[in-house]
Amino acid sequence: MSHPHPELTAPAPLAEGGLRVTPFGGLGEVGRNMTAFEYAGRLLIVDCGVLFPEDHQPGVDLILPDWSSIRDRLDDVEALVLTHGHEDHIGATPYLLRERGNIPLVGSELTLVLLGSKLREHRLKETVHHVVKEGERITFGPFELEFVAVNHSIPDALAVAIRTPAGMVLHTGDFKMDQLPLDGRITDLRAFARLGEEGVDLFLTDSTNAETPGFTPTERGITPVIDQVFRESQQRVIVACFASHVHRVQQVLDAAYAHERQVAFVGRSNVGKSSAINAVLNRRKAARVSGTPGRTQAVNLFQVSETLVFADL
């Protein structure tokens, strides 16, 4: 029986001086983002994420990008650039590193901290990594990379401008146009304008919800709603939240602190990522947060009106 999704065949030879862009996932779907850029026989990969199965795919845990067309060329990969720490952008990285374990990893501090936790979970040694910030430039082979700050639902997200002798590609990663973000880090439109004036030959941009009219509401809009729930509730509050949505975690912790509630994390992702979360949360307000699985039951020592439980989605 033929496979419904046959492996990609090898592409045609690349013209001399040309730049090839090959998406292995993430186009027309929300997940498994991975794109390869090839110049003069060298490869640069941007993102390596997973796609979560839908209801009609029972028994499937994760769906990986199909990088079979470069499987025998992984030694040509100069680096793997990770735009941010969401699973659909970093989740497949351990599977790629099983095939070549010394690919240099490039990303922001939080992104690489989250990835490091994932690599340890897969019992993989951490490979060479390069922590970068917005405004920095770094070169790998024929690829000169410049990083631009973008706002997203996870801190430390970056866009990347890729300069090659064939031209410049601007890859936004995921971004939001929130002018009042909780961490004060907005999408750097001035940097985008400067790159546009320099000349962008190919613009690869996030298009999630682009067909929906209007604007994305600011994250600050939910703060009064959260505060009202805490103020009016006389029982224990349970919040279901993605562990990687650090801004939302901070909002809820702020409300818990203001209303003097003890906090406990429940769920593998929430507990396992508590060290990374603590790196970016307001430490004073998060001082009473427990991230130790064996200690979360201590929340039962308090009155239900004094507690908050974070449940991992």
Which keywords apply here?
Metallo-beta-lactamase, Chain A, Rossmann fold, alpha/beta, five-stranded mixed β-sheet
Topology of this protein?
Layout: E1 19-25, E2 34-39, E3 42-46, E4 77-81, H1 87-90, H2 93-97, E5 105-107, H3 109-121, E6 129-131, E7 137-140, E8 143-149, E9 158-164, E10 167-171, H4 189-198, E11 202-204, H5 223-232, E12 237-241, H6 246-258, E13 262-266, H7 268-272, H8 274-278, E14 289-290, E15 307-312
Structure, described:
It contains eight helices and 15 strands. The protein is of the alpha/beta class. The strands form three sheets. Strands 1-2-3-4-5-6 form a six-stranded mixed beta sheet. Strands 7-8-9-10-11 form a five-stranded mixed beta sheet, with helices on one face. The protein has a four-stranded parallel beta sheet with strand order 12-15-13-14. The protein has helices at 87-90, 93-97, 109-121, 189-198, 223-232, 246-258, 268-272, 274-278, and strands at residues 19-25, 34-39, 42-46, 77-81, 105-107, 129-131, 137-140, 143-149, 158-164, 167-171, 202-204, 237-241, 262-266, 289-290, 307-312.
